[in-house]
């Protein structure tokens, strides 16, 4: 796998935050983090963050569901449950948001940044940094970024992630970062506590754009793999032999190699366990739709993507396929299991 | 890249033909090879074969164009130009065919194997082995195999290849073999003189089926990559940064990594030289159509493939795209170069 | 609307069966009819048949659900409930079948026509006529026809219908007939008691082929209309004004004129009542799949049909769309209601 | 065919312009017309206009090709060849433009309406009326309309037409009008001299929007018809019998009835003369692309249209299909002729 380090990838460095702070413990000021959105992804991410920051650093958490913050405080500890997202913003230098839809992100930022009552200076006189890890459309994200920047109350970057719940728990997520150059290092130092890699793709919204382009490609390659495997199997080929050949040849792709849709071909792939777990069809469809909408806004008429949207739309509601890994497309098209 | 050796791949072995023959030079009987079809692929393949077999082995060549066999005899030497394909068959134990279309293969075999005048016993009393490296539809191939086997005049295997003209010249082709188990070793010893790998996919027709499944997948992944890169670039992302990210992520595939359609992204890819060279759009369309037809014969209704066929049909006749590498789809959809 | 009478359409004639029989009442032998399958379509068809034949004619009915035959006997009367489909066949000259799937048709005919125990001669020494009004694939239908004809126990024709439950009740169905020339008149005399028009499309299976070709076209035109109306409405046009224009122009088609998918445009169309009633999405998908499969069997690779199949597959399981008229595609694609 | 008169269609009336003018000949002021763009459509339209207006009315013509205006002056007579489009605008009350692409329309209007040198008052102190009959995208059209209106030098309406060269010659075009209510009557009086029907679809741009929606539908219905007819014919049905059945059934549409793609089915249809004449594939593709782009600007992700674009893109460059009526799609998909 080609390393892309020479370009823009920002790995953790020995001169990074932890090291520097370690050197300066006597004079170091405690940092303060806010975390909004403790869902399936946010909860384990916040947990990893809490375990990596200094124990004297402060962390403020909030979720629409109070039971979740209670549970987090009990299970993980050393956090303060904020009464509101405004409260989180008041007390934190660095605020992370992990939310499902554009309107959630918009609402949270409207509550945090009131035009009539600007936030007090952040602890340590540090400029506030808002890191939004939600996967939303670039246009909505740009709108929120603009509101933050024009209010003068902080800086905003987009950092959607890939790696799923498994990666969130293991702290091995990849973040796709859209941020001004001067914010890349500071953001990366935070994100590396929850993931293994941060890739800076350009100015704000670039993280989201990169994620949508990648997932558009994934959505299509996944269907293509299901169709090609289905053909081979229907023609009488052994699926493992076929996949092995493809994976030394030009058909090789992530769905053929790592997540093969035919049960038993890729070790540990969801196909082997009735397509349970993995990357859910609803999330795939959500990302595909976001890509298509962002494409339409740029006057891009899709080709295969228009068809793929209809395939996933059928899959997400098919009783035999719904709530399963997106490789279940193989079942949808009548593949032999 | 995952090795698939434990399964069915048949690498050259030190106990292979050359070694054995070397050991037994004094008593060894000279082998005889026939080669029919000296086109863009066949010519360099035959050349490699001639250079790898023993100089005392015989080789008989034939092509519809006599100028080509003349040239081969002059450039490569140590061959005999056969007057007809029947003549090739009479004199050879092992006959290779590399032809463009099903009807060419059918015609050549009708001329070689007459029901009224069976071939004399092959040199060395060896059972004749017919290795067809053409990419044709499995049904036609099965028909020819059936004719060969029922005539009792030899054995027939299909061994389409991938690797293109570059691989044919360098002797680094990959062969996808459809053959009875007992023919695999003998066939592989021949093919390894023209390629680096032979993958046995099952009984006769399996080689073709594997190739068509792989190329169906490739045809779709290529369009998907062109579309995803186009989106990213139109949205303002740097194409190399985007591709580097994708290639560490789930969108990674052969077209994104090795043959990226955006000029300057993949080193040495055709995109960087006005899409010249590479895997021609006509060949891609031909293989895709073969896959779709073979699918229809198995009652498989395609999904994305139906659309892809129309995209490549437009590309092959578009003046700005025709006669170029199939990654030129990026240009067809309006990608920024 | 162009009349097609000069070609092959067979309207009822004043010299038709009823009239002729009326003329010959004193010597006329009573006719006997069997009716198998009293579902949503079959029940009203059988009811119309019973009301049109002479009161002294016999009618034998059967359904897998005994409650339905009981109800029919009570509501409509003058019928005999047969104990088995074999019993129906024994007692009837003319047997109609209206069944949902190929396997139902196959099962019923296997029970009726045993190789070991052929049917007794039909009443009046009339050759038995089997009229299958089910919509199944032409291949299965040909198989059943072949079994009937080779058994020598009767003649078989296919006569799928259009017009829906409304047409079945009103007796205004259109039948698409696939039958040998010599059976056309006899079949038409029966069918006209349940519909207003019988179109003879050619030999056996032609009725089904015609219906599938028509419904393939309908499936696509319906989506196309939904998309075009959606565009116009999203662009701010008044839907009725737009539809009126289209219906005087080249976009005019059955879905734009009679069954417009935008509520309030076509009078009495299902769109105006939450898409209730009409031609169900499941039936549309069933017919489309039959057409695509029959196409694949003839090596036809579909173009738009492959995509349409995925659209209807999504629609039939979408909670907001399922179990509604197929014009609900407009809702599925996000049309403004 | 449903009349839409009660809605918005504006037929010629006995109280229309000609009648009124006839009544008032003694005091009537001569009218002045400008006509820009004498191409395949514009030339016969201008000719019809010249023959319908009063012989004392003035007409000023212009085309990029001076030979064409010379020819018009010779053939039709009673016109003045304007030196420039500015000259046309100076001298005319009513200016018609019939141009191929948005940039042509934009250029012509930039030359006519200079911000630094507004046009003198029009003859008869009449407010200038610009009627653009070009088929361009609604956005560009709105831009031009805005420039006209904000300059205060006249009023602008869009009136794309359907009916082709045949309709232009016969004066039987249908115009789809996008105009403010108060301009509808005046515009209609002009257009009726070149066509048989004007349909007012709403404010400026609505004519174009209506045309694009209609032609989007037509583009799809045409492919659908070609596919359905191909199926039926491949299955052995007689094409005329099949089409006759479809045209009494739910598959009926303009391409099945008036312009059937199978040679010999629709009388006088282009299919019967090697698809020559009719509505050219390039124009169909142009309109489809305009519809898709205008759709994308409204965030509409297409379904079947994305695929159709690729089909027509293949057709327009296929040597056997190019420069023919768009029903030649039937040939492209391999239909039996």
UniProtKB/TrEMBL annotation, chains A, B, C, D:
It catalyses: 3-hydroxy-2-methylpropanoate + NAD(+) = 2-methyl-3-oxopropanoate + NADH + H(+). The active site is at residue 211. InterPro entries: 3-OH-isobutyrate_DH-rel_CS (IPR002204), 6-PGluconate_DH-like_C_sf (IPR008927), 6PGD_dom2 (IPR013328), 6PGDH_NADP-bd (IPR006115), HIBADH-like_NADP-bd (IPR029154), HIBADH-related (IPR015815), NAD(P)-bd_dom_sf (IPR036291). It comes from the Eukaryota. GO terms for cellular component: mitochondrion. Gene3D superfamilies: N-(1-d-carboxylethyl)-l-norvaline Dehydrogenase, domain 2, NAD(P)-binding Rossmann-like Domain. Keywords: Branched-chain amino acid catabolism, NAD, Oxidoreductase. GO terms for biological process: L-valine catabolic process. Pathway: Amino-acid degradation; L-valine degradation. One of its GO terms (molecular function) is NADP binding. Its EC number is 1.1.1.31. The keyword Nucleotide-binding does not apply. Residues 207-332 form the 3-hydroxyisobutyrate dehydrogenase-like NAD-binding domain. The keyword Secreted does not apply. Belongs to the HIBADH-related family. 3-hydroxyisobutyrate dehydrogenase subfamily. This is 3-hydroxyisobutyrate dehydrogenase. The lineage of its organism: Eukaryota, Fungi, Dikarya, Ascomycota, Pezizomycotina.
């Amino acid at each position: 796998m080609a390393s892309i380090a020479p370009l823009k990838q920002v790995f953790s460095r020995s001169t990074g935050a932890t090291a520097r702070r370690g050197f300066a413990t006597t004079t170091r000021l405690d940092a303060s983090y806010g975390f909004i959105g403790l869902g399936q992804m946010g909860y384990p991410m916040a947990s990893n963050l809490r375990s990596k920051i200094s124990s004297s650093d402060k962390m403020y958490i909030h979720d629409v569901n109070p039971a979740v913050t209670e549970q987090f405080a009990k299970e993980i500890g050393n956090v303060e449950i904020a009464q509101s997202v405004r409260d989180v913003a008041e007390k934190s230098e660095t605020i992370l948001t992990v939310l499902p839809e554009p309107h959630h992100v918009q609402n949270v930022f409207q509550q945090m940044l009131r035009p009539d009552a600007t936030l007090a200076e952040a602890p340590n006189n540090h400029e506030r940094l808002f890191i939004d890890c939600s996967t939303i459309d670039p246009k909505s994200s740009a709108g929120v970024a603009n509101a933050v920047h024009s209010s003068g109350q902080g800086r905003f970057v987009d950092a959607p992630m890939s790696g799923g719940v498994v990666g969130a728990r293991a702290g091995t997520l990849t973040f796709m970062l859209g941020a001004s150059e001067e914010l890349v290092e500071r953001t990366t130092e935070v994100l590396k506590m929850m993931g293994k890699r941060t890739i800076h793709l350009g100015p704000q919204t670039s993280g989201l754009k990169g994620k949508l382009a990648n997932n558009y490609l994934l959505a299509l390659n996944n269907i293509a793999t299901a169709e090609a495997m289905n053909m081979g199997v229907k023609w009488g080929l052994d699926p493992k032999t076929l996949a092995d050949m493809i994976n030394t040849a030009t058909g090789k792709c992530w769905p053929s190699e790592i997540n093969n849709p035919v049960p038993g071909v890729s070790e540990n792939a969801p196909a082997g366990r009735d397509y349970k777990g993995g990357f859910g069809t609803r999330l795939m469809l959500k990302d595909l739709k976001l890509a298509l909408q962002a494409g339409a806004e740029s006057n891009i008429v899709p080709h295969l993507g228009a068809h793929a949207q209809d395939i996933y739309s059928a899959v997400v509601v098919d009783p035999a396929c719904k709530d399963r890994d997106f490789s279940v497309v193989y079942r949808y098209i009548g593949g032999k299991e």
